[in-house]
Amino acid sequence: MLVWVFRHLIGGHGLRAELGVVLVSETIDPETPLAYAGIVSRIFGTQFSAVYPLYVAKVERKGRTKMELDQVIMWLTGFDDTTLRRHAQGGTTFEEFFAEAPMNPSASLITGVVCGIRVETIEDPLMQKIRYLDKLVDEIAKGKPLEKVLRAPATTRTA
């Protein structure tokens, strides 16, 4: 059996019921692709506008700013501020959101674990992009310097 867990990066059990966001924690038989497809379609069909305020709340609760969050999302997606605002206020699903995003070529530098899954090993391209976003928001919330979150090259010092 394959255990597929999609928990929102926001965390906290109270938010699950409160926000009506699709959160899945199910055991899926890998021989049953329809079960997997059903869960994935629910995740991909979640509206970005329903989740964006949760991203904002999480980073602000940890002492970071909405501007920093937006900068990170724009870095990942390649969106400008106007496009990000349109998605944050509209009914765009995650599938539509990432289909429109040109994506930063450095996104492949994002590594680590989100909800027990290594983001660099996720095979589904859309799920991987969603997890990349989750990972970046987690990094901001944990206080990681913005330069590191944005995978900026290290500066060399000369003596």
CATH-defined superfamily: uncharacterized protein sp1917 domain
CATH class: Mainly Alpha
- Shape, per Cα inertia axes: globular
Assign a percent range to the helix content: 40-55%
Strand content: 5-15%
- The SSE order reads EHEHHHHHEEHH
Q: How is the main sheet built?
A: 2 strands, antiparallel
Class derived from helix and strand content = mainly alpha
Q: Give the overall pLDDT as a whole number.
A: 80
Instruction: Give the second-level CATH assignment, the architecture.
Output: Orthogonal Bundle
- Total E-strand runs: 4
Q: Biggest sheet: strands side by side, in what order? A: 1-2
* CATH third-level topology: Helicase, Ruva Protein, domain 3
Number of helices: 8
Low-confidence residue ranges: 1-30
The end-to-end distance, rounded to whole angstroms, is 56 Å
Number of domains: 1
Oligomer designation: single chain
Radius of gyration: 16 Å
Helix-strand blueprint:
Layout: E1 2-6, H1 13-19, E2 24-28, H2 33-44, H3 48-61, H4 66-77, H5 81-89, H6 94-100, E3 113-114, E4 117-118, H7 125-141, H8 146-149
Antiparallel strand pairs: 1-2, 3-4
Helix pairs in contact: 3-7, 4-7
What is the compact description of this entry?
With 159 residues, the chain is mostly helical.
Properties at a glance:
159 residues, mainly alpha, Helicase, Ruva Protein, domain 3, two-stranded antiparallel sheet, two-stranded antiparallel ribbon, 4 strands, 52% helix, globular
